[in-house]
Amino acid sequence: MGAVQLRGVSLGFGGVVLLRDWSADFPPGLTLLVGDDGAGKTSVLRLLAGQLAPQAGSVRWQGAEMAQAPAALRAQVFWRDTREDWPEITPLQWGAQCAGQHAGWSEPQWQAHLQGFGLVEHQDKEMFRLSTGSRRKALLAAALASGAALTLIDEPQAALDKASVRYLAQALAASAQLQSQRIVVVAHYDQWTGVPWGQQLVLPGAE
Ligand SMILES: Nc1ncnc2c1ncn2[C@@H]1O[C@H](COP(=O)(O)OP(=O)(O)OP(=O)(O)O)[C@@H](O)[C@H]1O
Prior knowledge:
This is ABC transporter domain-containing protein. It holds the Pfam family ABC_tran. Keywords: ATP-binding, Cell membrane, Membrane, Nucleotide-binding, Transport. The chain is α/β, with parallel strands linked by helices and about 210 residues long. The protein has one domain: P-loop containing nucleotide triphosphate hydrolases (Rossmann fold, 3-Layer(aba) Sandwich). It has 6 helices and 9 strands, in the order βββαββαβαααβαββ. The protein has helices at about 40-50, 70-75, 90-100, 105-115, 130-145, 160-180, and strands at about 5-15, 15-25, 30-35, 55-60, 65, 75-80, 150-155, 185-190, 200. A 5-stranded parallel β-sheet has the order 6-7-8-3-9, with helices on both faces. Strand 4 (about 55-60) and strand 5 form a beta hairpin. Helix 4 runs antiparallel to helix 5 (about 130-145). The chain starts with a strand and ends in a 5-residue tail after the last strand. The protein binds adenosine-5'-triphosphate (ATP). Adenosine-5'-triphosphate (ATP) binds near residues 18, 40 and 42.
């Protein structure tokens, strides 16, 4: 399947430069994307998802420019911006939607992750009734269970209890073992030990 390749990427907003002529590869395996608050982690995930186009340079995967990727390629990406509002839907209903969108969806893994994150008691409550942490856990459980060839996870430790962070670390390791060709990118503001990262990329930071 190969890496997502960023070449000579520039990106900025309103005079603030986040990336200038930045090149990086996101190969199969686990990548930790490190950057201070506001360094552009979410923006890089959005570039990888094709939700955002760079102002210069290219973001290519499987022969396509991600911002113009055909639907078949987009279907191989799991990405949901954590800032997006949730519709009136329960975690179970949302899981069913995701199952329809991702060919590699694993129902046993979804069930296991709901259990592992302690979400079973909340799985029938609408998202807006859940705590931020529980909504985050539902998102993470779906990301992991999606089997998506390119899985993008933004600041997963935010609003998670310690037990869930431990569960997530082992679930990430297990997913990398299970699907060695899967590209999983996790953005976090700091180093994160205890996860077998294939690579760690540090963002240059806003100028
Ligand atoms: N669509 C946009 N329009 C204008 N400014 C934006 C846009 N997207 C991001 N920014 C700005 O770019 C900077 C980087 O944002 P981004 O969310 O990518 O960083 P981050 O590293 O994920 O930081 P944080 O963890 O604080 O969200 C921020 O100052 C943000 O306000």
